[in-house]
Amino acid sequence: MLDHKDYLETLNKARRKRNRRWDPRYLLMILGAVVLIGIVAALAMSLKKPASGRAAGEPGQEAGPGPGATPAQAAEPTLSQEEKERQEQQAAIDEVVNSYQNLGLVQVSGYLNIRETPSLDGKIIGKLSGDAGCEILETDGEWSHITSGGVDGYINNQYMLTGDEAKSKAKELVKLRAIVTTDNLNIRKEPALDPNNVIGQALLNERYVVLGQQDGWIQIEEGYISADYAEVKYALNEGRKMDLKAMAINQYDNLVISKVNNYLNVRAEPKSDGKIIGKMTSKAAGEILESLDGWYKIKSGPITGYITADPQYTATGQEAKDIAMQTATLRAVINTDVLNVRTEPNTDAKIWTQIVKDERYPVLAQLDGWVQIELDSVDEEDGSEGDKAYISTRDNNVEVRYALNEAIKFSPAEEAANAAASRRSKVVNYALQFVGNPYVWGGTSLTKGADCSGFTMQVMKQFGVSLPHYSGAQAKMGKPVKSSEMRPGDLIFYANSGGTVNHVAMYIGNGQIVHAASKKSGIKISTWNYRTPVAIRNVLGD
């Protein structure tokens, strides 16, 4: 039992406690505590909630529109530069694949032949590598008519994917490629314009994977090509024309090759005394039109006639193909009547002579837009190379391709009743027996080798005419002749860019000459104006 004092103390505590409940300061403290607890709880929840577009626990800020963001910006995620480039590349690949209306994709380990006709006997005109695409124009049985890389022909479709399967596979094969836009483009070892730098040629429409690009040059696996003559874009590999040497041979369906050391007569009739209408020089080619008893009727160059079928003098079949592959050389075939020859590969250089379309000129070097050809320009004093000869290829006046020698027109000078004509005929026929023999600077042997003036000097010596061993000096012998009045046996002279005579040939009639041309060509027959003559002389004295 509480005493009076304890009772009063207990009663006062109860009063104080009741009064504190309604004290505004006490209520404010309680409210503040509740708010603080709410903030802490909200913060904890936000930390546990996954960020937008991220997996729970992934580091990084929550993606979301910033202040003032438009609805479109709020809807599109921000892409990295790498992702943008990947999407652009994929769009370009899709565009390439979709550009084919009826895509065919070759599936072979090597390459597939493109033929001129839908037959295994059809002439091969190109090839498709094992990853190349083509546009299928029409399918008939096991053959498809296609176009690819500028080649239009037929392929066996058992080696080709088509439809959705081709499109799906093609997306893996589209690469950044350089597509050649000119007929012949030099491939160079280094990115520099240097004739000694050329290591190959790329043809029109050929495609090469791009390894890099720098200062006007495109680096490909084979070397470097000029960016001025190629378009760089995403593309599939496509067809290519036949190997250039093979193309030179494949133009013949039934090839025959002359195996003689000098020349083989082409006759108007299939008999040994038939009229001679042309000559096939050593390793010259022709098309066999018909086989007769011991004779072939052939077409070679501008000549159709008969040659002996004796295998001692002619090769056919695989033997002919093997010889052709060894002897086909790069030639400049002129497509215009007259073409300027310059001393340097630019249009500001001096024109020192002109050439004609009846000749095929050996190619020494190919520059972009220019070709250096062999033009029998040797310094007779020391045997060094004379003027370099360059012709422009920019106006499609020149076709550079591998080619074989073919027959040339030739009819021996008929022996007339008068002695002068008979003598000239004998001079020409004597000179012609040495066609095919070698050129040797300073030489005077008609069989082992002679230079141009040594050749004419030795021929004329057999007929009592003495000439010096120098073309410049020979050009002063005898008397001048107009081109309209020249006769077989007359000498024709040619000059270098300075106007100095540096070459001599003998006129044999029918607009042709025989001459010791060069180390490459030896003693051969050419068109009399294969380059511009500067003088014609009658040294026979009639």
TrEMBL record:
Organism source for this protein?
Enterocloster lavalensis
Name the UniProt key words of this record, in alphabetical order: Hydrolase, Membrane, Protease, Thiol protease, Transmembrane, Transmembrane helix
* Protein name, entry field: SH3 domain-containing protein
Disordered: annotated span:
51-90
Which family is this protein grouped under? Answer: Belongs to the peptidase C40 family.
Lineage, broadest ranks: Bacteria, Bacillati, Bacillota, Clostridia, Lachnospirales
- Tell me the ranges covered by the SH3b domain, including all copies: 101-164, 325-400
GO molecular function per UniProt = cysteine-type peptidase activity
Question: Sorted alphabetically, which Pfam families does this protein's record hold?
Answer: NLPC_P60 (PF00877), SH3_3 (PF08239)
